[in-house]
Amino acid sequence: MAEAHWYYALDQVVQDLLQQNGDVPLLAAQRLRQNSYSMLWSPELVVTDAEGSVELDLCLIIDGRVIIGEAKSNHTLKASDGTQEAAARLVRAAQLLSADEIVLATGKRAWAKDTLCAVNAAVNERWASGPRPVVTELVNVGTGT
Questions:
Q1: Residue 144 pLDDT more than 60?
Q2: What is the pLDDT of residue 101?
Q3: What is the torsional sign of CA 52, 131, 104, 65?
Q4: What's the Cα-to-Cα distance from 14 to each of 69, 70, 72, 143, rounded to whole Å?
Q5: What is the crossing angle of helices 113-126 and 83-96, to 10°?
Q6: Which end of the chain is more exposed for a tag (fewer CB within 10 A), N or C?
Q7: What's the pLDDT score for residue 5?
């Protein structure tokens, strides 16, 4: 009697997650929580105020520090109205949540210089009150390095 062949396939939810680069925020959160005592995490949080809504790829509280950010498979923070406006929205969300840190996570080796400059400039120009958040670049997310 011949033994039956086994066939394996990833569940469709996992396939969709990987095709849409949903692994980048998950892997970034995992890397951020290393050596921490506690972590709370929310996937794709939408922050809304009178100016509109901002979708965050990363929203975590790690050891009491509020960390928000973007996680991309590419190395740019682009929007239909430009990098500066995308950075301004990210900083607005950070201000609303009193974030301690803004993380830019990417699967690439580095973020585009204009992206880092835009986020740092938005923090310097738009941060209204309280301690300014640290802007952190998290690179090679998901590459095993």
A1: no
A2: 97
A3: negative
A4: 23, 21, 18, 18
A5: 50
A6: N
A7: 79
Tokens matching residue 26:
């998950």
Instruction: Count how many residues are written for the chain.
Output: 145
Q: Residue 106: which residues within 8 A CB-CB, separation 6 or more?
A: 24, 71, 72, 73, 74, 75, 137, 138, 139, 141
Distance between CA atoms of residues 53 and 82, nearest Å: 16
Sign of CA dihedral 115, 117, 120, 126: negative
Q: Is the Cβ–Cβ distance between 87 and 119 less than 8 Å? A: yes
Could you write out the DSSP letters of every residue in 62-105? Answer: ETTEEEEEEEESSS----TT-HHHHHHHHHHHHHHTT-SEEEEE
Please name the amino acid found at residue 137.
E
Nearest to 25 by CA among 44, 46, 53, 47: 44
Rg (CA), the chain: 18
